[in-house]
Amino acid sequence: xxxxxxxxxxxxxxxxxxxxxARARRTVVVVDGGEPRNAPAGHTHGFLSRDGVEPRQLLAxxxxxxxxxxxxxxxxxxxxxxxxxxxxxxxxTDLVLTARVVLVATGLRDELPSIAGVREQWGIDVLHxxxxxxxxxxxxxxxVIGGENRPFTLHQAALVxxxxxxxxxxxxxxxxxxxxxxxxxxRDIRIDTEPVARIxxxxxxxxxxxxxxxRSVPRRTVFVGPTFLPRHELLKDLxxxxxxxxxxxxxxxxxxxVAGVWAAGNVVDSPAQLIGAAAAGSRSAIAVNHYLLAQDIxxxxxxxxxxx
Length: 308
Hints:
Blueprint: E1 2-8, H1 12-23, E2 28-32, H2 55-68, E3 72-75, E4 78-84, E5 87-92, E6 96-104, E7 108-111, H3 118-121, E8 126-127, H4 130-133, E9 142-145, H5 150-160, E10 167-170, H6 178-186, E11 190-191, E12 196-202, E13 205-211, E14 216-218, E15 221-224, E16 227-230, H7 233-237, E17 261-263, H8 274-303
Parallel strand pairs: 1-2, 1-6, 2-3, 6-17, 8-15, 9-10, 9-15, 10-11
Antiparallel strand pairs: 4-5, 5-6, 7-16, 12-13, 13-14
Helix pairs in contact: 1-2, 1-8
């Protein structure tokens, strides 16, 4: 199958890009492995006109819209991408595609703190984004637990205080500077330096943070700071440049240093929420269409060049 664009990843960024391209009358295929980052969450928030919808319902609606405009959706994994004359060869678990352009929207992986109970309650009562879930847990007893992502965790502790006046920060190995400690205390955030043993769960819900010294601190919600790991192996294999932070670098439209290769969403932008990822996909799609248009014009000029 030869198409104009293969989009790898069927989340908000990938589906948004594919829909824009299908509406532009481009042939486009979305290849998706069916493992969205936000699958554990019960609801999505902050997505205009779709507040409270289940993540899988949002993606199902997006797929239907994209297919309705003539796009194609393929369930499967992309195993490799090769550059070829005039485009790319994309190998999937089921078939081989050729495309003029590749748009990678494979997202990221959250590496969670190795604390008992965190993975089990992830997306339920153990959260990381207050903009996504803070309003739903407002005015409840909240814990913020420190981790390897130090800057994110410290910012998170100060930020979560906007949603509740009952916040305890457990540094859990983070050594606070005097200034950091004073800033948290000034926000009326309590600090407990005892290491965390586990997240205690009762009847399927968080009810406390258990500490090494045997204390059990009642909490309803726990915020943690994952380490964000981009799923950018395909981009690296294509020779895309990495920045000092280890992430693939792109221009404002998502274009990498490799001609014909774009990337959008969390694979290159860890803070992007669903609506931001969707916007990035749309922006990349317009740039991709302009890139293809330039090729179309060049080809037409060559084909119709007067003889003699």
